[in-house]
Write the structure tokens for this entry.
Amino acid sequence: MKKFLLIIFALTAFYGCASLEEGTSKVQLLEYKLSKIQNENTNSEKEIKNYKKRITASKNEISEINQKLSEIKSLAEESETIHVFQEKITPNLKFERKYFGKLPETLNYVFVRSRRINLREGPTTISTIISNANYLDKLPLLEEVTNKQGTKWYKVLDKSGREVYVHSGVVVKRIFRFNTMVDNLNKLDTFINGELEKNRTIAFIRAYVPNPNSVNLKRKKDRYGNVADQSAAAHSERGTLFIPDSTIISIDENEITENNMTKIKVSYATEKSISVHNSFISKSPKINRSPNKAVVIDTTNQNFGVFQRIKGEWTLISYVYSKTGSKSRLGFRTPKGFFMVPNAKKIMTYNSEIGEKQGYAQYAIRFSGGGYIHATPFSYDENKEATRGWKEGTLGTSPGTRKCVRNEEEHAKFLFDWVLRGKISNENYQSVYDNVAVIVM
């Protein structure tokens, strides 16, 4: 492989740079001199023939160089297809659309993370540049390939619909993992129904303490990556665990230990003995079976699917691009796990870094601590219509909230109505009548 690369680079350097440029310049100079002596009409026929012969030889040399470059390019562009992406929902997944607004234009894509990038004819840096793409552009993804050098490239569609290649280092891949979403829904069913069969009670962690000014945030992590902030500190044989607010757990109501501690089970934890103080446990709402509504959020790919159990089968009813939490001075990554929606708000407000009222987001559905699924947020002094398009265009790219999960306003309204079954009161605070799960993966 190294020998092949050296040959490629050497030939490219020799033929592609010095020889081709010098050959072209040589032809131009000879043609200029020939034109000059023909105009002066003072030179012999023999000298004119000599110039013409030299011009022909130089042109042949350029033709040979171009042929060599074409051969080099062809060798370099040989690639192996690693994966072909299908632009359709998995056939074995039931899809019954209930949201009739705008759905994502593409299920599989890459987005540009540099200011401006080149899109090429083949999977190599010596391939012809066909077009360009700009920061945050989403390009439909067709294939993942590796070239002769072992470098990963993506075959994508540019804005004109042409098949082109882009180096994996200047873009980020995003896909909808519907099968993985369903796998997690089945794991939720297995956990809840399995614990109920053992005569255990399904309960929830209640550790939410409103902190609008983000004061004294607790950033200590446990072995699962969960932070202490808005979590219940649980004791286990492997040390302290931080169980995020609204996490679905199971308890045996007969297993209350000393000091008002109760043994619990958490779906993701492998510890044999976990106990938490009773003050963190809520048995409301009462759960007699696994929920029939769920939102499954993919923090890796910045999207989520909305599922409803229809005729006993988990059915996809909507899917959107989203934006999840990232670690920052005022925020955290969106916590992972199984959660139950406790309540919702028509409008969720948020404060600035210095504690002043800064802005709001509509259609907010709380799922863990201060984490909500909500519409695109806006500051009070912002021209909403002027900035909405740009803000919603960043959905499906990089994380960037304080913990919440954003989606487009039109879809956020649909989700809000669906969670509340359309029973929306005149108050800002809304009670949730259905058991609605939120899975963050």
